[in-house]
Every structure is written in C-alpha cells, then in structure tokens.
Amino acid sequence: AWDNLKKEEKTDRKSVLDGISKSQSALMSAQKISKKVIKEGFEWDSVESLKKCIQSEYEEFEEAVELNDLDKMEDEMGDILFSIVNICRFYKINPEDALERTNRKFIRRFSYVEEQTLAKGRSMKDMSLDEMDVLWNEAKRIEKGNK
Fold it and tell me: For the chain, how big is the Rg over CA atoms in Å?
C-alpha cells in the first residue's frame, strides 16, 4: 500500500529506480536498487544461482586482471560487489553492518600486531609477512577466547 501511494505521488518517475539517492554510499544504493527490483519480480530463482553468478563474475574479473585492463577490472569488481549485496539480502544480512563489523575486527587485529611489534622494539616494515601472520593469528585466538 505504501509503495502504491508513493508511486501515485511520484508520477514524474519513469522507472522504479528513479529517485535512488546519489548521495548515499554505493553499497547502500546497491541494497536499495536490489530491494526495488525484486518488488517488480526481477529476482534470482535461488541463492545457488546467485552463488554461481558470483563465481562467474569472479572469473571475468580474473580475465580482466590477466589483460591488465583496469577499467574492466573495476567493472567486474562492481558486479561482484553488487552480487554480494544480493546474497546478503537473501540471508537477511545488512551488508553495511557486516562490512562495518569486519572493519572494526580488522582494526582490532591490526592494532594488536602493531602493539606486539612495538613491544619487541621492531617496526612492521622490518617484519616479514610470515612474522606478521603469526601475530595476526594470535590476535584471532585471543578474540575467540574472549567470546
């Protein structure tokens, strides 16, 4: 009923996608676009078909990487991200919240690696990736122990 009322108010719109704000994040726009088009019946038939789509998009991204075609890589990565937003919708996961959670987790773990490195009187720039990975895994174990 609300959607129909909004349609009546917005008679100048030619598409259900008219009115998507350009000032919000691309992630949020993708989420809104996805929600609007499924109301029109434009929906994946299953989460499995969406997973196959993501795999296909990733393969196309890898082809662009092999060609060193930055424009095509960006295009394909956008397709991957859009598909991931859709899989989030299938599982009722807010992609913005999920990414924010991961950002906080990454910051905690990276901070641990920094602190441990400084405590040893070293610089991260002087450490090997393997040494940093050991500290990263320690941070993960500590987090799991605190849950």
Answer: 21
Q: Helix 70-90 and helix 26-38: axis angle, to 10°?
A: 60
H-type alpha helices, the chain: 2-9, 26-38, 47-67, 70-90, 95-119, 129-145
Task: Give pLDDT, residue 17.
Answer: 81
Are 111 and 92 in contact by the 8 Å Cβ rule? The answer is no
Q: Is the model's pTM score more than 0.85?
A: no
The one-letter amino acid code at 136 reads W
Q: Among the residues of 10-69, which ranges form H helices?
A: 26-38, 47-67
pLDDT in tens, 3-12: 666 556 666 6
Encode 89-109: b = buried (16+ Cβ within 10 Å), e = exposed.
Answer: beeeeebeeeeeeeeeeeeeb
Distance CA 114, CA 122 (A): 9
Q: Are 129 and 110 in contact (CB under 8 A)?
A: no
